[in-house]
């Protein structure tokens, strides 16, 4: 069942527009300032495949075309994923968008689409890797201010889980550095990179895949931070945050039972009345 024209998500109150603007700013900056970005045609292939996959699967499952979610997934892949194989540029967004429709529990998807696609490709041994997005301390702090401002303005960005993740992971990294006697500059370098910002504001903050209650989200963020630190510093594997989020996402249903809260839905503005919440009794929520 598709949402009617009167039940579309209110653009003025949809935080995904701000997210898309921030991601586009990052993409443009990365393209102008660094040499390790994807070619424009490759970036368009990632985004185009994400949008096309969303349109086709939305038609198959009889739900409205949700371009915002697909665009965020595509832009995140542009910033993070690197490969020399054109096939991977098609497969990655296809996996990401498909996961929202195929891997579900209680009528919502379990994993952040971009995160799951990257991890599955890495685990399969596919010819892909993750760009660290190391833009330098000053640029990273500028992007942090931009994203934090958006999180304050748009409460649906789940700023609580983002802040909890940044504080938890930051405390672990800095504490580890102090314990080892490393200069503080090493910890600062580990924390000032694009991957951490994209992860904190566009992956772990996904309102559809994080716990419903604030207590649950804070605990979830701390759990991801601990898991990431263990993978990164004990197992000596890169991309600890990405791996930790995939594994911890499996615990979200249990956290919702132990620490219940109000389930998130994108707000809508019904022209015939006050704000409402979209319900799609059949099919799949995007």
Structural write-up:
The protein has 286 residues and is mainly alpha-helical. The chain folds into two domains: 5-130, no CATH class; 153-258, no CATH class. The protein is built from twelve helices and six strands. It has helices at residues 15-33, 40-60, 67-80, 86-102, 113-123, 137-153, 159-180, 184-191, 194-203, 214-234, 240-249, 252-258, and strands spanning 81-83, 104-105, 108-109, 128-130, 268-269, 275-276. The strands form three sheets. The chain has a two-stranded antiparallel ribbon with strand order 1-4. The longest helix is centred in the middle third of the chain and has 22 residues, at 159-180. The protein starts with 14 loop residues before the first helix and ends in a 10-residue tail after the last strand. The model is unreliable at 1-7 and 268-286 (pLDDT under 50).
